From TrEMBL, chains A, B:
One of its GO terms (molecular function) is DNA-binding transcription factor activity. InterPro entries: Homeodomain-like_sf, HTH-type_TetR-like_transc_reg, HTH_TetR, Tet_transcr_reg_TetR-rel_C_sf, TetR_C_31. It holds the Pfam family TetR_N. This is TetR/AcrR family transcriptional regulator. Gene3D superfamilies: Tetracycline Repressor, domain 2. Keywords: DNA-binding. Residues 34-53 bind DNA. Residues 11-71 form the HTH tetR-type domain. The keyword Heme does not apply.
Length: 188, 188
DNA sequence: CTATGGTTTGGGCAGTCGCCCAATGCGATC
DNA sequence: GATCGCATTGGGCGACTGCCCAAACCATAG
């Protein structure tokens, strides 16, 4: 049963492990996250990692995908609330201004792209999320008269990830400077 | 002297170690490159790594910076040879089509950005290279009448790195689809 | 011939790695 | 009370980690 006390505690530990994994991937880098470090951060014994997850890689992948899906949904919902092209773009970039490129979320995004380039299974899962997000953005672009919605959505998402990748090197790279440039790409 | 046989052999080994480092950073990821793996790939004894370099991190940083500088120079020179805005952009993207996002160069780029977000010294060095490249592109953009050259150059470089980050997940993300979108961002 | 100086080797140090497993804890069920 | 089943612990396995160093190698200088 889901309501069984021990089962629920188990689910909580699973979630704490995933949260710790997301933090540590960003802090140390994907391949520098160890089982003991992970268990320590989650406040559990080292053996629990391999009780709840078949392998360390599986835990990292699951945690990373969860974080990516959450932010993708959030940004997608943000677009649905926007009325015009420029308003949507501004909102999108303003949301990204909350991340400085050194935070858990930004670094985790870059890390999971890299890991996906080396792990086919993770790559397929991440491609699914990315594809869904791009289609969602493409529909929004098409509804507001942007040219070549599919390609524009693809380049827009890549550009946003690229900005987050560059931001730690240039703190000035904020939405105020980025928006006017991308705005031109969205208009015929 | 530089021409001393042993000194020259030493320089060759240094270069072989750097080449091996660039390969392995891309293959395994920055934090999964070990001294023994490195020495093996370079065909030398494990002790040589710490004879030629003060630390493993120093070797990785030096190797990565070398690769980044080389490609940045190459793309900069390519721009200088281009006549118009569109021709330059097309050439830039065509050059990137030679990389599929899973190759040594593309992956190393993403890895070094991530490493630079965690290592201030590497971050400063990489910011120098990135800054120089952006100024070079900005001058070229300004000479050809593009609006807001500085900001456009910043977004353009970020977008190109973002495309390389996404390419392993979507092999269709080639210059043919990217160029028309970015082209709009370069014109008033 | 014997230094000399830089280059190279291979093993050793203390510590960490992923993963495994017998033992234990503990609430639910009978 | 006993028994069951899932969650949890902590130690152990062999392999690997970054870094160090005594010793050997070898072309040149004296």
């Amino acid at each position: 049963m889901n309501a069984s006390p021990s089962a629920r505690r188990g689910r909580e530990v699973r979630e704490r492990l995933q949260a710790a994994a997301a933090e540590l991937i960003a802090e140390r880098g994907w391949s520098a996250v160890s089982t003991r470090l992970l268990a320590d951060r989650a406040g559990v014994g080292p053996g629990l990692v391999h009780y709840h997850f078949p392998s360390l890689q599986a835990l990292l992948s699951e945690a990373a995908l969860g974080t990516v899906r959450a932010l993708a949904d959030e940004l997608g919902a943000l677009l649905d609330r926007a009325d015009g092209l420029d308003e949507g773009l501004t909102g999108l970039l303003a949301a990204l201004d909350h991340y400085d490129g050194r935070d858990t979320t930004s670094l985790l995004f870059s890390e999971v792209y890299l890991a996906a380039a080396r792990d086919p299974e993770l790559g397929a899962a991440l491609a699914d999320v990315l594809g869904a997000t791009r289609r969602r953005i493409a529909r929004w672009l098409a509804a507001h008269g942007a040219p070549a919605p599919e390609d524009t959505a693809a380049v827009l998402t890549a550009a946003l990830d690229g900005v987050m990748l560059h931001r730690p090197l240039d703190a000035q790279l904020t939405s105020a400077r980025v928006a006017p440039v991308l705005r031109r790409a969205l208009h015929p």
